[in-house]
Records
---
Amino acid sequence: MLGSGVFVLPAFAANMMGEGIWLAYLLAALIVLPAALSKSELASAMPSSGGSYVYTEKAFGAFIGTIAGLGLWSSFLLKSAFALIGFQAYLFVVTDYFGAELNAMTVSMGFLLLIVGLNILGVKKVKAVQVPITMVIVVVMLFLCAAALLLPEADLMRPLRSSAFRGEGLQQQLFGVAETAAFVFVAYLGVTNVAAIAGEVKSPGKNLPRGILISLVISTLLYVLVGYALMAVVPAETLTELKDDKVVAVKDSINHLAEAVGGKKLGLAIAVLAILTMASMALAGLLAASRFGFAMAQDSLLPESLENVNARFETPHWAIVITGVVMAGAILFLPVSDIAKLVSGFQIMIFCLENLIVIILRATVEKKDDGSGWYAPTYRSPLFPYTQWLGIVGGVFLLYMMGDKAAYGAMAVSALGVVTFFGYGRYHAGSRRTPFEEYRARILNPTHDEYELETVPVQQFREMMRNPTQVEHDRRVAAFNAADAGRHQHLTLSEFQRAMHVLGYDYYDFQLREIFHAADENGDGVIVIDQFLAQFEGELLGGDVADPAPDEGDGI
């Protein structure tokens, strides 16, 4: 989160509404809060890779799920591209200071290649980079803002005066704040990033809600403080430049703040930190974006190759590579402000949808005392359903304020989703009655009967695998171990299919794919060999299979 929202967006926001940008950040956070609470609940109930796509597909079915999945994928990769574009301005600060010359676009592409590689290496490698950078950025920005507010020349009242909110009259000023809040909404996209990799998170029922809510509180406080301190020290008109006969916002607003506080050397240090921070943000964005394609492939809405994970690193390498390629195109061809509007517009729609999903799932498939229903969140959003309806109404208002570009972007992504579903997903994904259809039926006919969601039948496979002889069990173990290219005692989808064909079992690949998904309960793209055999074999005809070690919460 703490990348472009701190280092790039403030100048653009100030160019839109004046020095009162802190209020726009605060308003955006208030609209995000209901969605953060709803997503915390949904993630605790469905801790699998894919995040919002998974919830949407579960509630509304494959068609709406395809549109939402591709929209989320686009939003996350565009925000990551936005970071790699934004840091180019700070790169110029560094090169100007040392009198060097670097091609900013080449550097951006180099960072993109690096973060693609780190994502393929796995989440632990990403964490090793993210944690220290995040800690440093929080501490440094707090000190910078404190120093700025203590400057003798700081005008502490400027961000509070009525002149800080452009427009004639209170109504126009309020609409200006709302429009700017919709624009900076992209800064909060990362607050729920972690749910996209929920299948790889330890103790998701506890850690996901905690991580989401703590992230929202910290980032909101930092955004508001940075916006206030910047505008108290640097007037809004200073954060513009003339480009192609047009007055546009600068992309290095925090460099202006740093130089006002400590001169060129502090500006240089902040520029280096900005480059590292936004590269780190792009790293996390690519991590989350790639999991949407991975999850959609698991539901047969995208080709199977996107769900296959790397045998050595156990990450969805093709989904990561394709996401990186599209990011490269966005960096080369899209303007910064348009990217921000496109991402914000679609993300507001998704947050509204997540609030609606909580309402639908609680009304239809929430687990009852008699054991019926499958929706059983370990974290529950407070003040239900008022929190959700507040988030929906606020989101719709911000969408109205976004203007035409956000609407066109949403329509373009929706069209892509429609083409993808009818061109591929419809012929490969299974059909079922959704909770949304159940919810609609209850409203139209409150006395209709309940239903259960359909599941993929694997009973035939269980019967075939059950109670093998010792010789057959040993043959299966040998085939699975031989297929395990990564030597982790795990099998990816392609490794499982290969092993089953070697064993001579008469199944097509698409049937083995369904069986694999049934065994891969947490949706991380791998199955543990011992656990799989214990689950499907039961007792040996001549000996017992040892109970597998319990899942310690690492998602494997």
---
Amino acid sequence: MLWIALHLPRLSFESWLAVPPPDQRGQPAALMEAREVLLCNAAAQRLGVRPGLQRVTALALAPQLQLGRVDAARDLQSLTSVAHVALAFTPAVCWAGVSEPAAAPHTVLLQVQASLRCFGGLAALLQRLRAALLPLNCTVQLASAPTAKGAAVLACWADRAGSERHAADLPQLERLLDAAPLWLIGTGRAQWDVLDSMGLGTFGDLRRLPRQALLRRFGPALLDEIDTVRGTRCEPSPAWITLPDIFEARIELRTRADTTDQLLHGAQLLIAPLLAWARAQQARVRRYTLFMHHERHRRQSGEIPAATELSIALAEASCDAAHLSLLLRERLAHLSLPAPTLELRLHCADVVRGSPLSTELFASARGEREGLIRLIERLQARLGAQQVQRLRPVADHRPERDGVLDAVSADAVGLAAPTARRPSPAWSASPEHERCTAQAAFAPRPVWLLNEPQRLAERQSRPLLDGQPLQLLCGPERIEVGWWDGSLAERDYFIAQTLEGALVWLYRARLPLSVAEEAQGWFVHGRFG
């Protein structure tokens, strides 16, 4: 059996320090616990602030020091995100030796023996695990060992070298544990004063002493825990971590947020855990909702809601953090908040399960469709869903009625290619008729049509555009439809060229003498771009 341990030594401090914007993280900051400095950043250390100082002393050394408090709920949310990242590599994930993460020493355990072959060995698995943990922006100490508690001890054991410790078998684990301090285990911390006074500081010190004497002096609890770490005693069955069906995460902002940048930074801190939760179940996010909770005293009047809700729907499910953040930025840019925001909450229950699409070496139709979908999503987020329209074809040969504008649906982009018009076999009575019909069916049409056809002047029955004669290049394309709805169109369309080389689309009545005088002559209906 092989276990990997993920220990987060600065979890409380980093989860609290991640809330302010990046431009404020360089300021002196310290995390407090019971009016005592627990951890501090480099800026505070340069001013003389050290862990263990009292609050009054720390403020005397650095009056501008930002102080924070340990929040168990915030730590649990950050630790759960790390567990969700681990679940993408193995379903056997648990907390370090306990059933509740709040009592764990900020350590997550992975049983990876069955996953080694899938990921190409331990080295490749560790490399991918480190890359998956990077978006969470937390310091992680990794270790591996044949026992769960042994891996946890090696991961929690930090020294100045900062190197990772990995034991492939029990003898190697025992050699590494000989130099590990005893306070890394619970009973060792409980009896540390006595052990330290006797000069027993490491696992190796106890291993070299008679076992019966240690049993009489310290009791069975210490030896049992050491045996469990070393693998000579069976470990209890762990309580495996399971994924919730619905993702919920919240973050409390340091200051009142009333700008897009402040809200976007806080929301991005929630997107990374969301994607970790989605990847753990081999899924991609299709819709998520951001709730922006407002100040309580502003909600007492009843005119301001408790929270502003912003729902982000994707045309194609994605696990790309940059894409999700981009859509959120565009939507937030057009959002007007009724009051400043103090807390953000992210909710997601709509995902698409299945393996993500593989990356491509060369361009393909699927890759082009994905790029088009992302462009449409961005335009809809910026301009509004109804402002992004497409020309949908209609079964009508009249140019002014063969298309209609409606809101584009990114779900249908590229799913079906437009089929070319084909002549019906029933009308192909002769080869000559078939050739003419095919030419008319595939005759090019311009994209740009005039709102109303423009009447052209004539000179010797030749059409003139801006006083210049036009040269007919192609035609006629005959249209004779509309008798069923009272809008009969009997036209012969031609493609003509101006002296400058521009192409225009002209038509005239099929039977000039059978139409009204205002419908006789040449008309320009469109231009080729």
---
Amino acid sequence: MVELTINKIKVKAEDNMTILDAAKSVGITVPTLCHLKDLVPSGACRICSVEVEGFRNLVPSCAYPVSEGLVVETNSPRVRRARKTIVELLVEDHPQDCLVCVRNKNCELQDLAERYSLREHRFHGESKEHSIDISSASMERDPGKCILCGRCVRVCNEVQKIGAIDFTNRGFKSIVTTPYDKGLNVSDCILCVQCIVVCPTAALRERSSMKEVSSALESRTKFAVAQIAPAVRATLGEEYHLPLGTDVTGKLVTGLKRLGFKKVFDTNFAADLTIWEEANELIHRLVNNEPVPMFTSCCPGWVKFLEHNYPDLIQHLSSCKSPHEMEGAVLKTYYAKKLGISPKDVFVVSIMPCTVKKFEASRPELTEEKLQDVDAVLTTRELVRFFNVAGIDFADLNDSEFDNPLGESTGAAAIFGTSGGVMEAALRTAYFTLTGENLETMELNAVRGTDGVKETIIKIGDKELHVAVVNGIGNVREILDQVREGRSHYQFVEVMACPGGCINGGGQPIHQKTDKVLQRMRALYEIDKKMLKRRSHENESIKTLYKEFFIEPGSHVSHEILHTHYHSRKK
């Protein structure tokens, strides 16, 4: 421990801490832009500069280590003037379109401009002009709004380890872009959009589907239905200042009905259906000595990563569609037939925590009779905008139930939104299918949490099943290399592209606090714990669906409608 003085307060800090961390430990807030917790600091933006006694220049507090006897001022006139000047320069090189910007009132540059009372334009000069990249089905890239903080570059390169974007050129011509400045649609980007989550402005944003959904809701011929992913119900309340992790399922159903959706279903129903099919596929692979480990296929960002980088391992991917695609397929076949509606008139909208689901919905492999399984995807953030435009006071809504028969679900489906949740849910059912008995304990703590790679061994009868859970796409290469080289001992592997799983997806409310992720995860586990039925094979509506339509898991009909295939994207 060392002792230093910050703003005349004696502070004891660990000797590996930075001035920024030490200040935060005693409740002193120092603004940052380029800083990302848990990554090596870059000190690029200089917004966090502080004055240190005896130093000629201001120093970046995010990158400067504490030492014994250091005397620091974080709010001196010199510091305030420097920060204000930096913000002014950033604002002058930024489009002056805050009122029509998607990040209005949720923009870190806007917040800093307010904090330092910018009330006039002191600097005038040339501004950068760039075209907007709208080539991707999931996101847009607007270099004109980029402030070169580098956070998107760092999360893509250091956390996700994709390297789809980076800095190019120098000085005034510096820009964050893709290789050769091509569109995102031809880059190695997997559209996890963790870059959007860390972007302080709207330089990176999701591709909005609000117009298509509005048109469907206003149409007299379309039968518009919505489905809600498990992760959305534990996070949307944050946008209405409800306590972190509040389960807003009932309010969501009510709100969507008020928007004009004819029916509102639970994607958790299809998550249970996915488990029936996936557990059956895993058992079939094990019994028939087919390629293992089997990789889960619920995360389209992970699937896209494999197609780009390890296409020779595609055979290891489960052929199961992701839950919301299964739900869409069931709605346009079984449900449309039950109601006597033409599948062409059923307009399926998925409310997702993820932007890559937009790309997934547009994949030609995910269609039934040339109709998309899912017609449009709205992120959690987009749904909030919908509610605001409609004048819906979400926090005061009453609770409603999902529509049936595609609304029943179990606790196993709820935990799909967390890293390790798919694995845990699948093992609950696979164990029962193989032994005829239920697992003694349903909480598989070995696959829970935020560690990069988690593994465990499940004893099923006289056999052992080696499983692994990958949390964040940046941690998957070692396992893939082991599989490629024939060194893997796993039979089943879950991969989620986003750190923490869907609960921290790129379409979720934007935040910079890691503790939020943990509280969101706990909320889904609480939903599971409170459910009367916590195993997918206990879902009575799924049993009815098989009896009336799919016959059994892995049948010809289920393969036609609930399964798909993937292809190489390697260049």
---
Amino acid sequence: MKTMIKTISIIAILVTTGLLNSCKKQLNQQPLYGLNASVVYGDPDNYVNVLAKLYAGLSVTGLEGPAGKPDIAGIDEGFSAYVRLLFKLQELPTDEAICGWNDPGIPDLNKMTWSAENSFSKAMYYRIFYQVTLCNEFIRESSEEKMTERGFSDANKATIRVYRNEARFLRALSYYHAMDLFGNVPFVTEEDKVGAFQPERITRADLFQYIESELIDMEDQLLVPFATPYGRASQAAAQFLLAKMYLNASVYNGTNRAASCAEYCQKIINANAYTLDDNYPELFMSDNNTSPEIIFPVCYDGLFTQTYGGTTFMVNASIGGLMTPADYGTNGKWAGLRAKGNLVDKFPDSTLDSRYQFYRNGQVKEITAMNVFAQGYALPKYKNKTSTGATGSNNATTPFVDIDFPMFRLAEVYLMYAEAALRGGGDAGLGLSYVNDLRERAYGNASYNLGSITLNDILDERARELHWECTRRTDLIRFDLFTTGSYLWPFKGGVAAGTGVSDHLKLYALPTADLNLNPNLIQNPGY
């Protein structure tokens, strides 16, 4: 199933390209030749192909594999991948990761000194709204009116309704990232006509309400987890995103939604569709599509979805110094990413914890120079090897990997419930038991279980469990530690030892070009 989904994704790129071009060029008439909305959506069997393009928008970067005809312009295509951009914005300005490259924009993320012209925050913004645009078109063309007009059978309509709700989920996911990273943003839905116009601005609080209403409405219209093909969004994916929003509601709209977070975590847990993987490192290997823990992945394949972003970036950028690429199932040695000492220090029991996966040979823990790979422990958390030791499908002859990025997994549900309980929204004893389930997996037994937990314990456990999974910036903001001078890491604020920074950096800037083109938008304060 994993390979089929990925192969369809590549085919669908070509289908959707013709669709988008026809919509842009001929808004008021049907094109006389080639692909257009009437041709593509007139066949009910095509809907799954276009849906696959929506999923592929989270993984691939363009129309010709890893390089050629990129989806978005203004940045190297390999840099423009959704998950690669998310990693940079969520991990580099935190206590977990540093990147030694000097490409414009990366040092500023390391140092938390970015401006509205940062190339990576701009690319993330445009990547998000490219994805929203694709989803809007699919949702528009799969409405009840359109399906009736096209004479589809009841069986075809029922199938397409599920696809439509998956597209709504994917749109909600991208709008969630827009809300989290940028705050108040332009807002477009399937109700807006295709073509150039100036979208209205939606506030962060109103966007929260919109995403919440969409997810609640579609929750029961998605497939149940047991019936959902791998790589697609189930009811649990919508429930997870709701729980994550509710956990951060104090940041997004100033409310405490801990009880709602706990409620949706329990929905996922009580469905018994997912269990913890027995082996933590295997969650990040090339056959992690077999894991019982992953709720929603972004799929990759070393042969069929080649990209310099996603997990290919995470594997190869983490290899340097004395490391041998073949040991990690690749031929890449990009020597960029390392862990900051703060993350290393979260593991007081060192190698007793299976989540401690640092490579130390030839490396020193402390970082005084960003561009020296030997400074900072390497962290090959993602490995293009199977759980049985085999190399991924590329046979280590290229840098491209098979590892799926586990965007949502059960372990985070456990941690969200435990935190929500401590914030007044659930059973603290049950939350403690969930945390200890993770620790038992990490240590192999109950010897290191905790007798009680605090919110700070939860934050540290999240670092141990979820490091380099694109959650850390959001976590530190929720705990009010992202900008403060009371918690420091190397190069925070541009100082080697770290210093506090302005609170305006809790949001990234809207691109200046968008502000110039759309008078409805307002730049975030401080930029």
